[in-house]
Automatic annotation (TrEMBL):
Keywords: Membrane, Transmembrane, Transmembrane helix. It comes from the Bacteria. GO terms for molecular function: diguanylate cyclase activity. Residues 173-299 form the GGDEF domain. GO terms for cellular component: plasma membrane. This is diguanylate cyclase. SMART domains: GGDEF. Its EC number is 2.7.7.65. GO terms for biological process: cell adhesion involved in single-species biofilm formation; negative regulation of bacterial-type flagellum-dependent cell motility. The chain crosses the membrane at residues 37-57, 69-86, 98-121. The lineage of its organism: Bacteria, Pseudomonadati, Pseudomonadota, Gammaproteobacteria, Alteromonadales. Pfam families: GGDEF.
Length: 299
């Protein structure tokens, strides 16, 4: 992890070296008898703690916006505490206020930057914990898997959709949803048997899984319907994905007849999971009715 922050480590060493050089150039060493060792102990411990903070940040945090605030806030504190400790060994001319300013100003600025970074870290950790807890719960509960297609089912879909809507609201990232339905699937089952229908569903699930991104969530919504949750995806990108899946469906030929697939897409806004899925069902039903009406038109 620290390799991502090599420039930060170099900057830290450079600033500490510059502080030492400047302090010894402008000040003179105090007489041994005038040194207050109790103050040195207290200020040395404070500096050591700040250095530990800085070390933890560069060794455990990935590069990013929040890490920058945490690092620079801690660095300002380290510089201020270093000059504060050196002040116990060095005496500066009374008319020279430079070292006093350099010793006093970085500390409050560093505290503000560090506090802002800690607030962001807390918010980030809450989101990560929520994701990990939900993911672990779902992975351990095999009852949420559809026994036929081995995809997650409706209960899992509701839980994930609810979670992603909350994250979408907090992070303002786009979220889209596809609903897919097999046209005339009941007629296909009556004509060719349930076994042929089950085989087609398994093949369709495998095909869809192979065409989706690792971040997408594919679930079996009902008997002949599937839902794809597209994280960080806008409406236009969802439409492109829907067209791509329609094209890939030609690779999935049943031995008896070619089935068609209706797909709808929508961008999910601030709404309840049930409302989002109900709207998707209505859109899919409208698409299927339009497709059937078109097929019944005389040539």
């Amino acid at each position: 992890m620290w390799r991502q922050h090599r420039y930060k480590i170099a900057l830290t060493l450079l600033l500490l070296q510059a502080a030492l050089v400047l302090a010894f150039q402008l000040g003179e060493v105090k007489p041994w008898a005038s040194i207050d060792w109790l103050d040195i102990l207290g200020e040395g411990i404070v500096l050591l703690v700040a250095l530990c903070w800085l070390t933890l940040i560069v060794t455990s945090r990935p590069a990013g916006h929040i890490t920058e605030w945490l690092y620079y806030g801690s660095l300002l504190l380290v510089c201020s505490f270093t000059l504060d400790l050196l002040d116990e060994f060095l005496r500066y001319p009374a008319h020279l206020r430079t070292m006093s300013w350099l010793e006093s100003l970085p500390a409050p600025l560093g505290m503000l930057a560090l506090t802002y970074g800690l607030v962001g870290w807390h918010r980030e950790q809450r989101i990560i914990n929520r994701q990990l807890q939900g993911r672990e719960l779902f992975l351990r509960d095999h009852r949420l898997l559809d026994p036929l297609t081995q995809l997650y089912g409706l209960d899992y879909l509701y839980a994930v959709l609810k979670r992603e809507i909350e994250l979408h609201r907090e992070q303002q990232q786009p979220l889209s949803l596809l609903m897919l339905g097999i046209d005339q699937f009941s007629a296909f089952n009556r004509q060719h048997g349930m076994a042929a229908g089950d085989q087609y569903l398994v093949q369709l699930a495998e095909l869809l899984s192979s065409q989706l991104r690792s971040s997408d969530v594919l679930c079996r919504y009902a008997g002949d319907r599937f839902v794809v949750l597209l994280v960080n995806t806008r409406q236009r990108e969802a439409d492109i994905m829907a067209q791509h899946l329609q094209q890939q469906l030609t690779l999935l030929d049943s031995s008896e007849q070619q089935l068609s697939l209706s797909i709808t897409s929508q961008q999910v806004n601030h709404a309840e999971a049930a409302t989002v899925l109900a709207r998707a069902e209505q859109q899919l039903l409208a698409v299927k009715r339009k497709s059937q009406a078109y097929q019944l038109q005389p040539d």
